[in-house]
Structures are given as C-alpha cells and as structure tokens.
Amino acid sequence: MDHQKETYKEEAQELILKIEAALLELEENPEDMGQVDRAFRAMHTIKGSGAMFGFDDMADFAHKLETVFDLLREGKTEITRNLISLTLKACDQMKMMLQAYSGGRAADSADSVWIIMSLRNMLPELKPLDHDHESHEEIVPEKSPGCEKIYRVIFRPDTNILKDGTSPVNLLNELRELGDCDITAHPDTIPLLKDYDHEACYLYWDIVLTTDKGINEIKDVFIFVEDHSEISIEVIDEGDDVSVGVETRRLGEILVDRGDVTPEKLRSALNTQKRLGEILVEEKIVSNSRVGAALREQQHMRRTREKVWKTAQTSSVRVPAERLDALVDLVGELVTVQARLTQKATVDDDPDLTSIAEDVEKLTNGLRDNTMSIRMVQIGSTFTAFR
C-alpha cells in the first residue's frame, strides 16, 4: 500500500501539471472545450484515486474543483480570468497537500476554504451542486418521480484491475451516491481453484440505477477505467410516463431486452427443455451443418474478441529516478569496458576477438540508447511552470 501511495503522489503531481497547462491554454482560448475536458478528467482522477488510497482531504478538495468544471462542460457558466486564476491557486494548494503527505510543511486548510468560498461567490450555480454536510438540508431539492430515469449499467472490469490499484467496490459506491441503486454480481466467470489467481478480478456487475443525473455523470464514474473495461450504459425507463402504473415487464421480456436470450429461444424454452439447435434440426427448419456452422461462427467471434481485448491491454511500470540513474551509470561503465575490448582486439589483431568485440559494441549501443530514452521525461512538464 505504501508503494501505491507513493505512486499516487507522483501521478497526482503530473495531473496537476496537466490541469495548469489546460488552464493556461484556456486563458488564451476560452472557447476550447477540449481543455475543459482535459482539466476535468485530471481532477476526477485525483479525486477518485485520492479517496481510494486514503488522501481524503485531497479527494474532497479535488471534488469541489471538479464540480466547477462540470458546470463549464455543461455550458452553465463561462471561463473568466478570475476563474482561471482561482483554479491555478487551487493547483498550488494541491501541491502543498502533496508536500505535506511527504513530510513537508502542512497545507493551510484555511486557504482551501478561502479558495472554495471564492469560487462559490463567483459562481452562484455552485450552491445547488455543493455537497458540504453543513448545508445539505438546504441544497437537496425535493424530486418528483417523473424527473428520474432508470439506467441499466453493465460493468465488466479487466481481470487485472486489482493489480493496477483500482477497487471496483469504490466505483460501485460512487454509483450508489448518484441515486437508488441495485447491484448484482455475477460469479459465473470465476475459474476452478487450480486456475484461480487471488490477485485477479473475475466478477462483473449488473447495476440498475434510478437517478436524476445524466448519462455523462454516470460515465464519469468509470472515467479512468473505461479504456480497460467493458462498460454498457443504457436508459431502460425514461420515468416520464406515469400512466403505466406499477405494472412491470415479465421476466422473459426483460431477458430478451437485455439480449440474454432471443425471442425464438425464449419461445422454445417455454415449450420444451431441449436445446434450440436440437429443436431446429428435429423440425427440419435448418440443417445440422448449418447449426454447426453458426456455433463455430459464434466461437470464432468470441475468440477474436478475447484476442483483441488482450492485445488492447497496456501496462506501464513506474521506476524511482535513483534506480534509473544507477542504470545509466552502469551502462556508462559498460561502454568504457566495450571500448577497451575493441582496442584490445585491434592491437592483438585477433579475428575471433574482433568479431566478439563488434557484437558487444552493437549490444552496448542498443542498451545505451534504450536506457537514455527511458530516462527522458516530457519537456512540457518542465516548461509549463515558466508560463
């Protein structure tokens, strides 16, 4: 966990730089909504990861900033120089928080309160969206049943999500905060004990969510796992037709709508316990070979999708700068030894030794180039501060 917290501090520092860069671009071009989205995503990641690893004050502060940029994304407020200036001050405050976590001078909580209050005074739209406990009773409006929609969310995370330091439980808890939520876990993908990896996540979830929030706010919950997860979000009830009363759809209708069964298969299941393919062949609706071909096509599509999914996965490793510096030093010494070997082969005029020296030189040059490229950092992170 200590390693994960250190990783979070490093990533948060990089995300703050991204926010600052986006703000500076917005100062030049206030109409650039791409930069607003960029800053919002960075704030959302700081908030989500901070809450996950115990940086609660950081997460809470980032959440309030995120709310401001959510208003910008929805077109409910406009970019101004004062807003940019305040958000830059907020970035400085988050840097102070990170330094405090690392043993530096503690960040002044009064500064955080001043920044948030200044934003609130500047943007009256923030008041109905604020989630401070002290004003909770004042800001939660009464909701009529017709203003809420029912969503079906299917969340199938990558099996390596736990290894990446992300907890699906925290994401599900965020969904619960959006409204009335029923969650069903599916354990059917859990392998036998001999194939079980205790660090892997085999579960996936079906969620039925009743909320007055929009689909973008639901998508934002999964904003930093969406590239490595299967996520489906659809509206199953608009909530604007009160004439239907309390009558609900039958189980078969729901299964068909979800795509779990076809209407034909449902009808067959209601009349017989035999498999669909067997029934179709027996009734001579389709030949056995046609059924076999369809099954092979199905299996092929499944294998192809699994292959594409595995190929699409990416991974990265964070290495402390001290280790990279040590590696660079070792490569430098290796280059020196390689030069001595080449000189020795030339002086002795030994063809075998010369051939070995040439091979070592090629390997050394490749290792040197790769090591130097690993040690490089993005120049933008360095020069952003000068702006």
Per-chain topology:
Elements: H1 2-28, H2 33-52, H3 56-73, H4 81-101, H5 109-122, H6 136-139, E1 149-157, H7 168-176, E2 180-186, E3 204-211, H8 215-221, E4 229-237, H9 251-258, H10 263-271, H11 276-282, H12 288-312, H13 321-348, H14 351-375, H15 379-383
Antiparallel strand pairs: 1-3, 1-4, 2-3
Notes on the protein architecture:
The model is unreliable at 128-146 and 240-248 (pLDDT under 50). The chain has 387 residues and is of the alpha+beta class. It contains 15 helices and four strands. It starts with a helix and ends with a helix. A four-stranded antiparallel sheet has the order 2-3-1-4, covered by helices on one side.
The major sheet is characterized as:
4 strands, antiparallel
Contiguous helical run count? 15
Q: Looking at the structure, what is the overall shape?
A: flat
Distance between the termini: 36 Å
SSE order, as H and E? HHHHHHEHEEHEHHHHHHH
Q: Give the proportion of residues in helices.
A: 55-70%
Quote the average pLDDT: 76
Tally of strands: 4
Rg, Cα atoms, Å: 29 Å
| Unreliable residue runs | 128-146, 240-248
Q: Provide the structure class.
A: alpha+beta
Output the strand order for the largest sheet: 2-3-1-4
Strand content: 5-15%
